[in-house]
């Protein structure tokens, strides 16, 4: 048994997700199959399956497993869906999305994170994911529309730039609130009649920043 297999931790990992209310079997199966320890720094691999966020490069974090599972479940993904993720980070959320959706475009403002995420995703065979270096809050007009959009960093208000890219029937989920402190996870659904908004749970995310980072 290799050090990165963590059988007891992985068993508790699944149990914790179920106890906290994750019930979608496809999401639970995907969370079990995607090797979270491949997406954290080597020094943090022993704690990869604990239900907590962990630091990664460029002052960012990999979200706690429950938050990843919860946001994924709220997206109600299908194999035909095209998904936009704002904030690739480690690439872990994109790897989860890749197993449940048809295509995933994940945008990252830090070159180091984008390059590392791309390499990890290629290694794991996530060939339906494209990692793009760019400003996720100010995308070029020719990108989209999308069936699902997920924002994995805190925004003080939902960017119209993203809402406009939702297909009818599409879902957008994002943490909205002050950059320092607690945010509320918001789910928007675009219907023929307009936008439906629902507040979900309180979360804590690093802030979403505009532009492409000059360094890193």
Which consecutive residue ranges, at least 5 long each, have pLDDT under 50?
Answer: none
Basic shape: globular
Note the gap between the termini.
36 Å
The average pLDDT score comes to 93
Count of alpha and pi helical runs: 6
Please identify, by name, the CATH architecture.
3-Layer(aba) Sandwich
Tell me the strand order in the biggest sheet. 5-4-3-6-7-8-9
The profile of the biggest β sheet is: 7 strands, mixed
Number of strands: 9
Radius of gyration: 16 Å
Overall CATH class? Alpha Beta
Enzyme class: transferase
Pfam families: PCMT (PF01135)
Protein name: Protein-L-isoaspartate O-methyltransferase
Catalytic activity: [protein]-L-isoaspartate + S-adenosyl-L-methionine = [protein]-L-isoaspartate alpha-methyl ester + S-adenosyl-L-homocysteine
3D structure, described in words:
This protein has 216 residues and is of the alpha/beta class. It has a single domain (7-203), classed as Vaccinia Virus protein VP39 (Rossmann fold), CATH 3.40.50. It is 26% helix and 26% strand. The protein has six helices and nine strands; from the N terminus they run H-H-E-E-H-E-H-E-H-E-E-H-E-E-E. The chain has helices spanning 7-19, 25-33, 65-75, 92-98, 111-123, 160-163; strands spanning 54-55, 61-62, 82-86, 103-108, 129-133, 146-151, 166-176, 183-191, 194-203. Strands 5-4-3-6-7-8-9 form a seven-stranded mixed beta sheet, with helices on one face. Strands 1-2 form a two-stranded antiparallel ribbon. The termini are far apart. The relative contact order is 0.13. The mean pLDDT is 93.
